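In the lab's daily routine, each protein ends up as an entry in a very long ledger. A line of letters takes care of the sequence, but it says nothing directly about the fold. The three-dimensional part falls to structure tokens, numbers that each stand for a local backbone shape. The outcome of that step, for a single protein, is printed below.
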Amino acid sequence: MSAPQAAQPGGAGTPGAAEPAGARTRSYAQALAEALREEMRRDPAVMLIGEDIGVWGGGGVFGVTRGLLDEFGSDRVRDTPISEAGFTGLGVGAALAGLRPVVEYMYIDFAMLAMDQICNQAAKIRWLLGGDVDVPLVIRAQQGAGRGNGPQHSQSLEAWFTHNPGLIVVLPSSPHDAKGLLKTAIRSNDPVVFLEHKLLYSVSGPVPEGDYTIPFGQAAILREGKDVTCVGISIMCQKALEAAELLAAEGIEMEVVDPRTLVPYDRHTVARSIAKTGRLLVTHQAPERAGVGAEIVACALEDAFDYFDAPPRGSAARTSPSRTT
């Protein structure tokens, strides 16, 4: 078995690369807001639908949509009742009619109330109609634990959507990626579930000024290493970078890989990294059982089995509450 070609760090749209001229520091929330504003100015078909995103909430829970109602008006920034199934269906219909709606949930936990619209309608209708229609719908939602919001406002549900055919699943881990990936999502003709960890909104980093996009299915090597590959999901990329600093003090060099999108998933970059390091750790905040880490490990074993020097490991939340696990 020949070794996969070494992964190349950096490159366009990669946080590990030198930022383009004109890069500025912005928070994750500011980067998202910038993407929305630029896309709404670029394309009059882009509209926002969600709870408390305009008049009542002052721009959503974390202020990402603040000011957009004043600039674009109530026809394009639509406050909704507390009815996720209803306004998600509105978004699906608007997408089928030629608009580009961005539907926002306060918390991804509330998507459970709209799973029929997301998984049975948005994800399938193109294929039910022989590929003749587009569904340019983006669903934005925050997820994850760490703010004491309680068990019904703190889940990480990326595995639910990754499992469902027809959906693109995006989890940006930096302000740079948040802007570029959201722009790509809005321009996509397929439905996109865009998941933002609530603890990332205040994280700041370099964000180029003006228009740029990041392709789906292109992982980023955030830190090079030779001893172990760590694939982090969403905020766990930030945690992995912190851990890599601690390990480096002990002479262990950990390579940190951010998939950026789970559908499509860049399994080749991960395989090339394992060929170099011989070890794999996958970390996500969702429960371990049936989490996306298991799929990442399965892909790695198929693609790079001969290069493993030790069994792959996972670091995830315990599957609880349960009387049996």
Summary: The chain has two domains: 25-208, 220-317. The first strand starts at residue 23 and ends at 27. DSSP finds ten helices and 14 strands in the chain. Residues 220-317 form a domain with the Rossmann fold fold (CATH 3.40.50.920).
